[in-house]
């Protein structure tokens, strides 16, 4: 946490399901809704595709928060995928909380293809939450990570 | 350097603390529920004559270390070697078996004119104070020709003499340490107890060598669950694997980490595994420790510290395997 | 008086002599090690080596799976193995069978009634909260079923609640401290009856989001993922914690997940029923939705 909070911008990763949430994000864009640009979206076929490894890896690689978004229960393109997500996500979130990750850094949401507005709202609120929390310190701290040799490029986290 | 000095046990921490300005002080101390070697702020934290859960090899050959980082962009490829930051360290409290193990490791990483810069750097900057141990469970050092009082490998060695330590230096660095105190020079014979032993013998090693195809290995193979506990607590197991850790699309780091022949993937290459079952893997480990040895120094790779025996979740006992080898019975006994 | 051990030896001898099983997997006492170790008895006359008493701490369930996999690499004809199980070990066998790693008729389960193992004055945590003195699943049962059973308190669960009460930063540093000791020997994984994947994701050459580095963060990821992969399937046998050479309190994590799952999905303990469907591989349309 070398950077002061002022020149720090939250970096979020959003795993959005192809059929609903990604389309919802698209709709927000085509409807010209304004929301903070801090979320990097990764499109997944279904919210149940998101393995817990993905969430952990995102946090470790420099994400300050992770959103998993899928279709509303009952609307899954694959009929039942998000029901599994729902069970798994509750368990993984509680587990990560137990292991010392702030629960507010990991969230799930159901966003349909028609809910551009909801996407806008979820992302805006999530960015604000993370901005208040500050940078995630679940990152390598032991100095063994890449040491930039000549210049000062330090952006080694999520590909931007 | 043949002089023997008497140091009151109660004076030891204060004397070691004198050297803190020059050295980082390392030794055994509790880490959570287990004893391990690590840095201490004050010599009073050191625990002497205790068997640590794992060995001191982590100090010289860490379980994971970055070798270099790399970055690739329009300007080309940039490599940046990451040698360890070298700090002078004073490592206090190694028992004779861990000293012997250091000699083995020195040969592996520094022998034959090819010094591993990561290991050797740390090793050269470390002064080692050995302490005679109180043999406990599972020790079998005497089988390898030394006992709890053998100082070989130390810069300075401390023998237990009741309320005193008897100290003798074996190197310039060790002698220099002693100069910081006003010690009494004594004429005495240092203890030379023999350690526990009676498991591994020249005979059992020779028999093991002949018995590569003994069916008893299969009995071990079905008990060995294939974890690396034995190898990772072993003071001389030195295998490692090299892997890349990417950071984004443009760079990353190359690191090495411990690996062991007990793992199924250890020998896998290009889709083929020449050692397909656990029988072959446990045999490899036992053979490497007891039979194959270090071809450069003819030294046994096992030093009889007994840590693997204590750590094995399946209760596999390398001592019993050696003892079993000299028995003619076809079926293996439980535990062998 | 006939002890359970006598009965066990006689049962094993008969099973082997009659050719009902090829092997009896039980415990034998290793004098020099001062430990009860897994013992594979293949001849009727060796049945006398088997022991049963409170020294039999090790769970044999993972050895059953390991042995069968070892044998399947050299032998093709089916074989039947008898395994001696305490209540907790039986749940491990159920795990392996339910995960379809072995066929039911490959295994003959000899249950023993158990009143706790290890040092009587310092029993393992699992024994202090044991509800399965009688194995929930068995083919043969040795010993008398206890008359009354009471649900004991769980010191481990109390510990979990205590940790949950800490500040998130304190929890992070608590686990960082423990995980920084992890050497990645994978003993926890190898002794786990629920970790029965033929190839572990951490051993896979193809996935590039798991690493074997031993930094505290990577170790945390390893342990978090392992706990999640056995979530709802962990039978709480405590073998991972027993096997860990670095003394990491892994059961605190497993207990946390197990108690969460019971609370969230109202499911019975894992590994007590051969027909069970692990809670994370099924769903109810009415599952809680409040977290979204």
The profile of the biggest β sheet of chain B is: 8 strands, mixed
Strand content of chain B: 15-25%
Tally the structural domains of chain C.
Answer: 2
Straight-line distance between termini of chain B: 45 Å
Beta fraction of chain C:
5-15%
Distance N to C terminus of chain C: 62 Å
Q: Helical element count of chain B?
A: 11
Q: What is the number of domains of chain B? A: 2
What class would the helix/strand composition of chain C place it in?
Answer: alpha/beta
User: Given the helix and strand composition of chain B, which structural class is it?
Assistant: alpha+beta
Residues in helices of chain C, as a percent range: 25-40%
Query: How confident overall, as mean pLDDT of chain B?
Result: 91
Q: What is the count of DSSP helices of chain C, taking H or I runs of 4+ residues?
A: 10
Report what the structure shows:
The complex is a heterotrimer of chains A (160), B (336) and C (292). Chain A has four helices and four strands, in the order βαβαβαβα. Chain A is of the alpha/beta class and 160 residues long. Chain A has one domain: 3-Layer(aba) Sandwich (Rossmann fold). Chain B folds into two domains: 4-186, no CATH class; 202-325, no CATH class. The longest helix of chain B has 15 residues, at 96-110. Mean pLDDT of chain B is 91; it is low at 330-336. Chain C has 292 residues and is an alpha/beta fold. Chain C folds into two domains: 4-142, no CATH class; 155-281, no CATH class. Chain C has ten helices and five strands; from the N terminus they run αββαβαβαβαααααα. The longest helix of chain C has 16 residues, at 250-265. Chain C is globular and about 60 Å long. At the B-C interface, helix 7, helix 8, strand 11 and strand 12 of B face strand 1, strand 2, helix 2, helix 7 and helix 9 of C.
């Amino acid at each position: 946490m070398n950077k002061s909070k002022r020149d720090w911008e939250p970096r979020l990763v959003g795993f959005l399901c192809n059929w609903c949430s990604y389309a919802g994000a698209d709709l927000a864009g085509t409807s010209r809704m304004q929301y903070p640009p801090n979320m990097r979206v990764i499109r997944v076929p279904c919210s149940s595709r998101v393995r817990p490894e993905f969430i952990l890896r995102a946090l470790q690689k420099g994400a300050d928060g992770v959103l998993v978004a899928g279709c509303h229960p009952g609307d899954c393109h694959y009929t039942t995928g998000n029901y599994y997500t729902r069970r798994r996500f509750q368990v993984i979130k509680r587990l990560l909380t137990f292991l010392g990750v702030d629960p507010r850094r990991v969230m799930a949401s159901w966003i349909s293809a028609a809910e551009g507005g909801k996407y806008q709202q979820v992302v805006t609120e999530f960015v604000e939450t993370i901005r208040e929390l500050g940078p995630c310190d679940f990152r390598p701290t032991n100095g063994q990570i890449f040491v930039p040799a000549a210049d000062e490029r330090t952006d080694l986290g999520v590909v931007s | 350097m043949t002089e023997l000095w008497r140091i009151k046990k109660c004076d030891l921490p204060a004397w070691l603390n004198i050297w803190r300005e020059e050295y980082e002080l390392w030794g055994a101390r509790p880490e959570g529920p287990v004893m391990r070697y690590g840095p201490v702020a004050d010599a009073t934290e050191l625990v002497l004559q205790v068997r640590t859960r794992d060995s001191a090899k982590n100090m010289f050959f860490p379980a994971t270390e970055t070798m270099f980082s790399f970055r690739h962009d329009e300007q080309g490829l940039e490599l940046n070697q990451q040698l360890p930051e070298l700090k002078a360290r004073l490592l206090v409290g190694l028992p004779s078996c861990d000293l012997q193990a250091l000699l083995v490791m020195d040969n592996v990483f520094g022998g034959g004119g090819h010094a591993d810069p990561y290991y050797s750097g740390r090793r050269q900057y470390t002064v080692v104070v050995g302490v005679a141990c109180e043999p406990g469970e599972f020790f079998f050092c005497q089988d390898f020709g030394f006992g709890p009082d053998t100082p070989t490998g130390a810069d300075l060695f401390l023998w237990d003499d009741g309320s005193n330590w008897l100290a003798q230096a074996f190197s310039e660095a060790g002698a220099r340490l002693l100069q910081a105190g006003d010690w009494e020079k004594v004429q005495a014979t240092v203890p030379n107890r023999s350690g526990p032993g009676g498991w591994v013998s020249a005979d059992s090693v020779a028999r093991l060598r002949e018995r590569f195809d003994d069916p008893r290995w299969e009995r071990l193979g079905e008990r060995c669950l294939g974890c690396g506990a034995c190898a990772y607590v072993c003071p001389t197991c030195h295998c490692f694997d090299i892997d890349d850790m990417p950071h984004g699309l443009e760079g990353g780091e190359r690191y090495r980490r411990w690996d062991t022949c007990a793992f199924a993937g250890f020998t896998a290459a290009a889709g083929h595994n020449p050692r397909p079952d656990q029988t072959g893997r446990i045999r490899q480990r036992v053979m490497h420790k007891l039979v194959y040895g270090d071809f450069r120094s003819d030294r046994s790779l096992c030093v009889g510290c007994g840590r693997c025996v204590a750590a094995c979740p399946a209760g596999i006992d390398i001592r019993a395997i050696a003892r079993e080898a000299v028995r003619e019975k076809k079926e293996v006994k439980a535990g062998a | 008086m006939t002890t359970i051990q006598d009965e066990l030896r006689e049962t094993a001898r008969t099973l082997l002599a009659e050719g009902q099983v090829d092997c009896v997997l039980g415990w034998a006492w290793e004098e020099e090690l001062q430990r009860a170790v897994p013992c594979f008895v293949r001849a009727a006359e060796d049945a006398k080596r088997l022991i049963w008493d409170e020294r039999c701490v090790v769970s044999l369930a993972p050895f059953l799976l390991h042995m069968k996999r070892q044998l399947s690499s050299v032998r093709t004809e089916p074989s039947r193995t008898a395994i001696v199980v305490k209540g907790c070990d039986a749940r491990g066998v159920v795990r392996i069978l339910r995960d379809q790693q072995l066929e039911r008729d490959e295994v003959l389960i000899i249950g023993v009634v158990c009143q706790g193992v290890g040092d009587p004055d310092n029993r393992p945590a699992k024994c202090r909260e044991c509800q399965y003195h009688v194995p929930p699943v068995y083919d043969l049962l040795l010993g008398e079923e206890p008359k009354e059973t009471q649900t004991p308190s769980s010191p481990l669960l109390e510990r979990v609640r205590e940790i949950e009460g800490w500040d998130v930063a304190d929890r992070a540093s608590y686990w960082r401290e423990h995980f920084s000791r992890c050497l990645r020997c994978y003993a926890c994984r190898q002794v786990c009856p629920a970790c029965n994947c033929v190839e572990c994701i951490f051993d896979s050459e193809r996935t590039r989001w798991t690493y074997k580095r031993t930094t505290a963060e990577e170790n945390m990821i390893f342990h978090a993922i392992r706990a999640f992969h056995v979530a709802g399937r962990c039978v709480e046998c405590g073998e991972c914690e027993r096997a860990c050479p670095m003394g990491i309190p892994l059961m605190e994590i497993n207990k946390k997940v197990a108690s969460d799952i019971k609370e969230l999905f109202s499911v019975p303990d894992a590994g007590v029923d051969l027909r069970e469907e692990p809670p994370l591989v099924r769903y109810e349309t009415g599952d809680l939705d409040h977290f979204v």
